[in-house]
Amino acid sequence: MIVVIKKDADKEKQDRLVDWLKSMGLGIHVSVGEYQTVLGLIGDTSKVDMDLLESLDIVDSVKRVSETFKCVNRKFHPDDSVVEIGSVKVGGGHFCMIAGPCSVETEEQIVTVARAVKAAGANMLRGGAFKPRTSPYDFQGLKAQGLELLKIARAETGLPIVTEIMSADALPLFEDVDLLQVGARNMQNFDLLKELGHFGKPVLLKRGLANTLKELLMSAEYIMASGNEQVILCERGIRTYSDYLRNTLDLAAVPMLHELSHLPVIVDPSHATGIARMVPPMALAAAACGADGIMIEVHNDPIHALCDGAQSLKPEEYAALAKKVQAVREVLA
Amino acid sequence: MIVVIKKDADKEKQDRLVDWLKSMGLGIHVSVGEYQTVLGLIGDTSKVDMDLLESLDIVDSVKRVSETFKCVNRKFHPDDSVVEIGSVKVGGGHFCMIAGPCSVETEEQIVTVARAVKAAGANMLRGGAFKPRTSPYDFQGLKAQGLELLKIARAETGLPIVTEIMSADALPLFEDVDLLQVGARNMQNFDLLKELGHFGKPVLLKRGLANTLKELLMSAEYIMASGNEQVILCERGIRTYSDYLRNTLDLAAVPMLHELSHLPVIVDPSHATGIARMVPPMALAAAACGADGIMIEVHNDPIHALCDGAQSLKPEEYAALAKKVQAVREVLA
Amino acid sequence: MIVVIKKDADKEKQDRLVDWLKSMGLGIHVSVGEYQTVLGLIGDTSKVDMDLLESLDIVDSVKRVSETFKCVNRKFHPDDSVVEIGSVKVGGGHFCMIAGPCSVETEEQIVTVARAVKAAGANMLRGGAFKPRTSPYDFQGLKAQGLELLKIARAETGLPIVTEIMSADALPLFEDVDLLQVGARNMQNFDLLKELGHFGKPVLLKRGLANTLKELLMSAEYIMASGNEQVILCERGIRTYSDYLRNTLDLAAVPMLHELSHLPVIVDPSHATGIARMVPPMALAAAACGADGIMIEVHNDPIHALCDGAQSLKPEEYAALAKKVQAVREVLA
Amino acid sequence: MIVVIKKDADKEKQDRLVDWLKSMGLGIHVSVGEYQTVLGLIGDTSKVDMDLLESLDIVDSVKRVSETFKCVNRKFHPDDSVVEIGSVKVGGGHFCMIAGPCSVETEEQIVTVARAVKAAGANMLRGGAFKPRTSPYDFQGLKAQGLELLKIARAETGLPIVTEIMSADALPLFEDVDLLQVGARNMQNFDLLKELGHFGKPVLLKRGLANTLKELLMSAEYIMASGNEQVILCERGIRTYSDYLRNTLDLAAVPMLHELSHLPVIVDPSHATGIARMVPPMALAAAACGADGIMIEVHNDPIHALCDGAQSLKPEEYAALAKKVQAVREVLA
Question: CA nearest D247 in A: which residue?
């Protein structure tokens, strides 16, 4: 950590600051420049409060030079992690194609869609049973019953199932779910993250609408620090001033997360754009920039979907897209 | 709800859409213009999926003309709501001054600060016991023990206590807390909001970092629809491209929320700015634009605070600020 | 245009509003609903001030249902436009590869880079002669001399040249430039746009850092309404809360602009990301989502470039990227 | 400037970097830590390209520790600057009340409004003659004729006049304007800024919609470095995800700009909010947080204003607001 002291700062205050830092067990390297003095802090600075230092009137600025995340950090784990969900691998060259409806509605619906997406090339099935909805008056999902329907679809197709968990209370219901999704709104629900760390099953962690990559990595760190290394990151669009689509898909996050972390990174173009016809170009772009998978909403009857039909592809559209994604991956391999 | 049909849209598709809408029990008023046809939907449109409609290729755009929030809406409740926390009233002309340390640390600390802020003009005591922290390695609060220390400080001073709840699991510990705070990261933790609706104690609901005013009101609606009318809204800064301070305090939200809703609105300039010397001007600005209260961090020894000391005022600074806030309120009354 | 009147609005005020709208030559279609009255305005509403209407106390909301842009609108021009810059075509299936250094520095530099990028597959040469710099103390470009060096490089390689114009005053110097670039900061320099409309040479219009797609299209409309149809749009990253890269590349703008407008759309991943190693993945993503070209910074000696070297590829890196871009385009054709 | 070298960086590359930096005339102070090596650069680092350094593979991060702005910097000019516009002073305790219509329309209109705002407490008159409009089809102002009408209004009332300049070409027409406004869209029109530096008349520089405070200060630096010290800064709202009002008024910019710079800072709540009834609370908030003035749109007949009527106050509303602003300033003095 580097602390820049203001020009003409009171010498006595500066000495008191250095003493205080030393009292925390840190080594201090002072270098006096023409315009300012710079303190280099050596040792374990993870307990030092940067904001507090920055607020001192003699301090110009503070910079942390070593990241505070450890488990997720590529520096300490240079090889790509591969997360295994049943027989499906994700990361390190393994690409996943997650598809399915926004919400699980009926057995017929989920089994039909599961068969269709499997035939089209998907290797995991998604479907919402617990739905986070902005309005208390909107459909909130079939809950436990929806999970049972997903298991039936899995039995019929062999596809591992992915579904969202909103609260640690519901964990007992998720014992037999293959990949537990943490939605954007819960990315910083730290109590939930810790419980998922203890639970031990693979987690798909979506980036929050206004969260930085470091915050996403710190949330993954919560899960990993609690003992669970099976984490997949997911870019799903951020909130910006730009409002022509639901969110702004930040695809550069894919190569950047790969640089910062060894964890797999997938992309959800359906929720990011909110419009079915925007999904194929953005899915292809995700594949082209190195994503480890894509998660796409597919519905056999979009016009009657209870939720988010606007962003769902029809199975034949998904099949056509899956072929192109495959072709892009092959020419870039 | 208004649906604008594209010029030259297929007539048959248009008829099918109208039939489908009618099948949902809606009346449809068609007006044919020079450039487009407009469908006016009459009846209960709360179940209609706007996104789905917008995704249809014959549809140009969709606009909801009646808000989906009811309980929080000023239209159906023209008078200001007054929330009562013990003997303290908030809203409808009653101004609250909430103050205290970021985290509860020791009995001596919280009692000392409580006495100091009471003497300086505060009428509620804040202090974090459960702390949401970006990093799993940061101090997470004294938890249950912190709540006990807050109660001791309340007993010593008579100030009602305000503290953050992060998970519904912890509710039994909050039976004797006066005002339960939902933090920005949990604004859309819908399971928690519903439980707070049933719990029945007053709730301080902070706006999320990237949430719109409508989303904030819908989150308040979750609490109210579950039976609890004691909700105070709190503007605490939003995340924007602007990075010279921690967040951008959106003070215009205060008069706008007052227009949309009857609920009281307070402002937290400490978390918004993250720098103690920016707190007084922004607190005065909050009072000047009509806030129903301000929540400010005060610490008796900022340099040693375990967390967020950078944004805490000293008691004497708070006392000076409280006098000015009072003066501004008087000349504007 | 649709005007929604508030429930229980004063009837007399409403009549006055209708009269005033009629006095502007508009037809008014009134439909009275359960919760509100809706006025449909028929005729030329381009002179109606939406903001003014929205500010009236009896008005709930106003929605414009026909876009105000005409020349750029795909509705009135369904086929893709093809812009011709010398022998190079852009749009309608023609892909351009614009490459070159951030700044023109010396004859040797620009000729060397021009040859290298041509050999690597580029079909246009970029290079800054007039440089917009945030600081008055930074290098501002070689100006007229830089333009002469670009022409020498064009003579040596046959590549058409692209360079930025910052002020209409300088237009006489640009008579022999093939494609005039309007930078992000000047996207709403309306006086410059009008002059470029009269000037008649092809224009590359970059999206501003915080501009919506409609604003970008309205700026293109300024050029086209002044008589110049040769306009190429360019997505180059927007400013968001996300700060791990210089800007957030908004690739979904590519398919969306193609839907709204017939103009070609290219992408500049160099300025968007600001880091050379992020350029190849984002260039490939741009090709995959349907861009009509990419503009990339290439420098023969990045470490000594006067400006923006951090985001420049070496010629061999560019050649490798160009091959992959070509491969992606072929499998998606 | 501080350059942090990555752990395990190639020693030879590191030596080459140090040599290259020395070749630019800089002194280099190397401090080797446990996790990284830090280079402190001593001397004139204004020519060093931070982005280039950051792009090098051995470099972890780079931090500039001395600001590149000089003329505007409070460090080198501790006292508040006072800008004089005719007999009106702004800054250093002098508060300005600028008011007038969005656009100058007719002699009767501008003279009537000028008299009304003077009577209500304004000490400068604003009015747009050259109007930046998003659409080429919108009213663009009366131009030179509008300037003449403003001068008539000045002659009638004695109020100095403030009006926007969009292009350096028009400067000869502004010889007799008292305060030249640079609008948000032109904040980084560097050619215009330089010309205003040479022109020498007081300049009101508005912050761009997505510009940082440092960029605003660097734009002021352009004017001051060209020889003109008469600059007033203006916060007028930024573009964020929040869309309930036209822009998000960033009032904390006021105390922050006062800390960074000695220049006066005023606030424009009319353009920030776009709604007349939001102007009074935000104007009061601006006064409460220390602004040196407020600029407000006032129109004698809002319903018929050609432009932006929605955000204009009526004279009697302005008079009531002016009294409250004065009262707030008095109790905070």
Answer: A241
Burial of B155 (0-12, 13-18, 19+ CB in 10 A): exposed
Report how far Cα C81 is from the mean position of its chain's Cα atoms. Answer: 15
Contacts of D213 in chain B (CB under 8 A): 242, 244
Q: What is the pLDDT of residue D38?
A: 78
For chain C, give the longest Cα–Cα distance. Answer: 76
Reference D181, options D152, D159, D202, D151; nearest CA is D202
Domain with CATH 3.30.70.1140 in chain B: 2-63
Residue from the list D210, D212, D328 with its beta carbon closest to the beta carbon of B244? D212
Q: Where in chain A is the domain with CATH 3.20.20.70?
A: 74-332
Distances (CA, A) of A77 to A73, A74, A88, A261, A290: 6, 5, 22, 8, 19
Against chain D, the chains showing at least 3 CB pairs within 8 Å are A, B, C
Q: CB-CB: which of C134, C135, C166 is closest to D191?
A: C166
CA distance C236 to B165: 43
In chain D, which among 147-206 make CB contacts under 8 A with chain C? 166-169, 185-186, 188-192, 194
Q: How far apart are CA C96 and CA C90, in angstroms?
A: 6
Q: Which residues of B touch A226 (CB under 8 A)?
A: 136
Query: Which residues on chain C are in Cβ contact (under 8 Å) with B241?
Result: 210, 239-241
**Is the distance from CB of B99 to CB of B115 less than 8 angstroms?**
no
Q: CA A185, CA C34: separation in Å to the nearest integer?
A: 35
ipTM here:
0.88
* D143: Cβ contacts below 8 Å, ≥ 6 apart: D129, D130
Strands D203-206, D179-182: pairing kind: parallel
| B281 interface with D at CB cutoff 8 Å | yes
Nearest to C251 by CA among B53, A254, A298, A183: A254
Chain B CB contacts of A166 under 8 Å are 189-191
Rounded to the nearest angstrom, the gap between the alpha carbon of residue C94 and the centroid of all alpha carbons in its chain is 18
Question: Measured between beta carbons, which residues in chain B are less than 8 angstroms from residue C65?
Answer: 4, 33, 35-36, 38, 60-61
3-state SS track over B281-323:
HHHHHHHHCCCCEEEEEECCCHHHCCCCHHHCECHHHHHHHHH
Strands D265-267, D231-235: pairing is parallel
DSSP per-residue string spanning C254-278: HHHHHHHBSS-EEE-HHHHH--GGG
> Which residues of C, range 24-53, sit inside 8 Å of D by Cβ?
46, 49, 51-53
Letter for the amino acid at C91? G
DSSP type of residue B128: B
Query: 0.80 exceeded by the pTM?
Result: yes
Burial of C121 (0-12, 13-18, 19+ CB in 10 A): middle
Cβ <8 Å between A2 and D2:
yes
At D81 the three-state DSSP class reads coil
Q: Top-level CATH class of A74-332?
A: alpha beta
Q: Over the stretch A110-152, which tens digit does the pLDDT of each residue have?
A: 999 999 999 999 999 999 999 998 888 878 899 999 999 999 9
Correct CATH for C2-63 of 3.30.70.1140, 3.30.420.40, 3.30.160.620, 3.40.630.30? 3.30.70.1140
| Residue pair D70/D76 in contact by the 8 Å Cβ criterion | yes
CA distance A105 to B50: 19
pLDDT tens-place string over residues C288-319? 999 999 999 998 876 655 555 678 999 999 99
pLDDT digits (tens, 9 = 90+) for D20-57: 888 878 888 777 766 667 787 877 776 677 777 877 77
Tokens describing residue B17? 């859409």
As a residue count, chain A comes to: 333
